[in-house]
Amino acid sequence: MLLGTVLVLLLLGSAGPASAHAALRDTDPADGTVLKSAPRHLTLTFTESVGLLEDSFRVLDPDNHRLRVSPARHAPEGSDTARVTLPAKLAEGTYVVAWRVVSADSHPVSGAFTFSVGKATITAATTDTGPVEDPATESLYNIARYLAYLAVALLIGSAVFLTVCRPPDAAPLRRLLRAGWLTLLGATLALLVLRAPYESGAGPAAALDPSALTRTLTTRPGLVLLARLALLVPAAVLLVRLPRRERPSRTWLAAGAALSAGLAVTWAAGEHASAGIQVPVAMTSSVLHVLATAVWLGGLTALLTSLYRSTSAFPPAVVARFSRLAFWSVVVLVVTGVYQSWRGLGSWSAFSDTTYGRLLVVKLLAVALLLAAAGLSRRWTARLVRAETETVAEERQVEERQAEERQAEERQRERERVAEPVGGPRPPAAPAEPDVPPAGPDVPPAGPDAPPVAAQDPHRSALRRSVLAEVGVGVAVLVITTVLTGTLPGRAAAEAAESAATSGLAVASVTTIPFDVGTPGGRGKVQITLDPGRTGDNAVEAVVYGPDNGISTVPELRLSFTLPAQDIGPIDAELTDRGGYWATGALNLPLAGDWRMKATVRVSEIDQVSETKTVRITG
After folding, report:
1. Phi, psi of 385 (to 5 degrees)
2. What InterPro entries is this protein classified in (predicted)?
3. Which CATH number belongs to the domain containing residue 47 in this structure?
4. Half-sphere exposure of 461 toward its Cβ, with a 13 Å CA cutoff?
5. Which of 434, 468, 492 is the last residue of a domain?
């Protein structure tokens, strides 16, 4: 059942594309400007440091021929820039620039803009301007990311539970450790192989190109994944040499702690913490957050496995030890989570105005539910320990009473031997009584048909159910966390919005897209207004109508634009919920032509549909 829950959450979590984290802050020349003389360089500035690809820039001249430009490099201003040198002489007219870079947190981002020399001209490009996102590559890469998160939590959490809580039957946990190690190895290899096509937007077959893998190994994301693979080798040695019965040595514990921290660093070095403000503090916080999450959620899985699969009696002391360990893990999670939320959001309004903020609210609600389940588990743990203590005390009292009875019988026999007359007849011996165990409280019935002790204990059964609920919610939190790492932080979104150009335009293009998710009441239409419906910046407003033609509120609406003739896009409109309608004020469509507008409507947690319609964008 737990595996099915994980698969459903993975599928739901990968239903939509992950947003890249570096947002374009500025371009030089500025988007849409008309210059008197030709520029020598094109410079893009982003909200965080970016990595450059071999094909990061594609520049089309007014006749729609691709220009030969210099290899992309960083400008002297810093690693958050990308620059190419243009030819010495540029013809008069409008130029289209399509770009693609990789965020410092390993996610690719792309877009396009225009500038003109002398005067603006109408473009009708017929030349390839760059790759689009390949859905198969993106889905495979995201699934590998999810599996890596789950595997590292299982590996670290099970190892900590085994060494700190010391369950009597370690065999089920050793199988968990092997499963976590093998899953993390496979997921990391998949991420390494798929890295090149994921960055370039190519299909999965491009992963077979040896030169692509060679290039990946020279980039920071590739080096991070390579370091993770290297750490898995000594981790395997430690797992093989894990003591069978006695407690591990201090050397083993120190090596295990160092390897766990090293694995956590490979996540911090490839995600939000590696870019933005306060990087050293953010990296430390991220490492502690990953470790605390693994100890808590992975330990919960180990506890649940032990409760269900252990072949020997399961002492309540093991549960009590994990309860204390989980408490301190939650303390670390709260402290680091508050800091990371502040760093990612930047303002209170980002909670409602950005996708990152809304996802964070969902995660906080899930964590609150997880804490409630953890509190329930702690109460059942306390009851189990108390019941065990009372049982031990009662058994001790029974043993003391039996000892006193035996001593009284011995004293009676001694008195009878002393009082017996010498040579007289001996009284007949009393018939031997069968050994009957003394009656005591809560003594289980003997015999082959008697249920096991664990099955008769209501506290233990309730603890199993509460831990199972805790694990289920914990997996959901872990998946939401993974999706959150693939979403543009609120602080970066605000910075990009402040830098985006705005224009007041008069003419609007209105398009209606019907949809049907195939469920009762799941029909409707989306009315999309593009203002002005021309090249350059456009304001977008989208209203969802239900089957009764009334305005309908949906949990999510995504809108993207692709120009198939030029392989430009998809360009995400990044709509935000404005309370009754969805809108954005900065959608840039750089070329005239027939754009494919794709609307994805989600009407419930599991029901969504995507519909496509062509819209004409004029010059």
Report:
1. -65, -40
2. CopC/D, CopC_dom, Cu-R_CopD_dom, Cu-Rt/internalin_Ig-like, Ig_E-set
3. 2.60.40.1220
4. 7
5. 492
CATH number at residue 516: 2.60.40.1930
Amino acid occupying residue 301: T
- Which two structure tokens, joined as six digits, stand for 141? 């890469």
Grade residue 4 by pLDDT with cuts at 50, 70 and 90. very low
Element (H, E) at 425: none
Helix, strand or coil, per DSSP, at residue 30: coil
DSSP 273: G
Rounded to an integer, what distance in angstroms lies between the CA atom of residue 80 and that of residue 77?
8
Shared-domain flag, residues 159 and 36 = no
In a domain, 312, yes or no: yes
Q: Could you tell me if residue 85 is inside a domain?
A: yes
Highest mean pLDDT among 174-188, 241-255, 405-419, 477-491: 174-188
Q: Are residues 108 and 144 in the same domain?
A: no
Of these ranges, 149-158, 199-208, 481-490, the one predicted with the greatest mean pLDDT is 149-158
Other Cβ atoms within 10 Å of 309 Cβ, number: 13
**Considering the entire predicted model, what is its pTM?**
0.59
Structure tokens given for 405: 């009875």
Range of the domain at 28: 18-117
- 225 with 310, same domain: the answer is yes
Give the pLDDT score at 55: 81
- What would the pLDDT profile of 10-45 be if each residue is shown by its tens digit? 333 333 333 346 778 888 888 878 888 889 999 998
- Same domain? For 93 and 143 the reply is no
Residues 481 and 511 occupy one common structural domain: no
Residue type at 333?
Answer: L
List of long-range contacts for 230-233, beta carbons under 8 Å, 24+ apart: 231/259, 231/262, 231/263, 231/266, 232/181, 232/184, 232/185, 232/188
Q: Is there a domain that residue 271 lies in?
A: yes
Q: Which of 117, 150, 179 is the last residue of a domain?
A: 117
Residue type, 480: I
The phi, psi pair for 366, rounded to 5°, reads -65, -40
Same domain, 255 and 279: yes
Q: Best-predicted range by mean pLDDT among 96-110, 141-155, 437-451?
A: 141-155
Q: Report the domain count for the chain.
A: 3
Q: Is residue 13 part of a domain?
A: no
Burial of 246 (0-12, 13-18, 19+ CB in 10 A): exposed
On whether both 351 and 383 belong to a single domain, the answer is yes
Q: Which residues contact 151 (CB under 8 A, 6 or more apart)?
A: 180, 181, 183, 184, 187
Residues 305 and 176 grouped into a single domain? yes
pLDDT band at 440 (very low <50, low <70, confident <90, very high): very low
> Considering Cα of 294, then 297, then 303, then 308, what sign does the dihedral take?
negative
Question: What pLDDT, on the 0 to 100 scale, is given for residue 322?
Answer: 81
The DSSP 8-state label assigned to residue 422 in this structure reads: T
407-411: which pairs have CB atoms within 8 A and are 24 or more residues apart? none
